[in-house]
């Protein structure tokens, strides 16, 4: 007999890694509540997933930095419980941290770090037993990237947030874990210069290839998340897991010796 449908809430669920995760969780039968800022993009994503998978997929306009708006997410969840929460919305800027104005620095921390915390706090008490939370961090959390300094700082802190939340919520039946993608196509639109909404595909070809021999795709991280939120990952709590094709494994031998 089939049980009641499970619900996954996904911030940044309308594009890139979040969208790939939404499509993957729909394959596993999850109903979806997708959060994002762009209404047209969001409605299109929800209706395409619903049409291809048969699950219920809804969209809610949501700005991570707008802390007054989070109660609306709980309202939209309604009487249902939340089985899975994936925090994928993220922002950044190509700039050394020494040159980053503090208001910009604060904004990046607000979206990438305080936003996921506020999301978990908002849905606390609405989680099913058991439930799973996944925070989407970055390989830049493990080895910082000077070119995106504030972003690297925010993601390193997000990894620790994941561990602390894992401790706080373990007794409530909520497992929290963190995934750290490497360079993933189509690539974060919000690291682009102001005004450039979409990444030029040629741009990604300039990225160095990881040892695996290809760049990541949204589905690579989506598969990991699908595993982490499943009962197969019942004993995985407070982990930060790289999905980067080996980029952070170490420096490959370029044939010159050490
Ligand atoms: N792609 C990579 O190479 C890579 C590598 C490591 C980590 N990551 C992480 O993976 C996550 C997703 O990145 P992606 O590459 O999939 O990016 P993306 O395709 O640019 O998607 C970003 C998503 O986040 C939403 N978003 C952005 N800023 C927001 C804000 N202030 N409030 C609410 N929603 C916001 C966007 O919604 P709208 O479109 O409606 O604005 C969109 O749904 C990020 O946390 C990023 O740091 C990505």
The rough form would be described as: globular
Number of domains: 1
Query: CATH superfamily, called what?
Result: NAD(P)-binding Rossmann-like Domain
Task: Kindly provide the name of the CATH class.
Answer: Alpha Beta
Q: Level of helix content?
A: 25-40%
State mean pLDDT (0 to 100 scale).
94
Rg, Å, rounded: 18 Å
Query: Approximately what portion of the residues adopt beta-strand conformation?
Result: 15-25%
Low-confidence stretches: none
Q: Reading side by side through the largest sheet, how are the strands ordered?
A: 3-2-1-4-5-6-9
Main sheet?
7 strands, parallel
State the separation between the terminal residues, measured CA to CA.
61 Å
SSE string: EHEHEHEHEHEEHEHE
The CATH architecture assignment turns out to be 3-Layer(aba) Sandwich
Bound compounds: NADP nicotinamide-adenine-dinucleotide phosphate
Detailed description of the structure:
This protein has 258 residues and is α/β, with parallel strands linked by helices. The chain has one domain (7-243): Rossmann fold. It contains seven helices and nine strands, in the order βαβαβαβαβαββαβαβ. The protein has helices at residues 16-27, 39-53, 70-77, 102-123, 149-170, 201-205, 218-228; strands at 7-11, 31-36, 57-61, 82-87, 127-136, 174-181, 184-185, 216-217, 240-243. A seven-stranded parallel β-sheet has the order 3-2-1-4-5-6-9, with helices on both faces. Strand 4 (82-87), helix 4 and strand 5 (127-136) form a beta-alpha-beta unit. Helix 1 (16-27) packs parallel to helix 2 and helix 3 (70-77) packs parallel to helix 4 (102-123). The longest helix is centred in the middle third of the chain and has 22 residues, at 102-123. The termini are far apart. Bound molecules: NADP nicotinamide-adenine-dinucleotide phosphate (NAP). NADP nicotinamide-adenine-dinucleotide phosphate is lined by residues 12, 14-18, 36-38, 41, 62-65, 88-91, 111, 136, 138, 181, 183-184, 187-190.
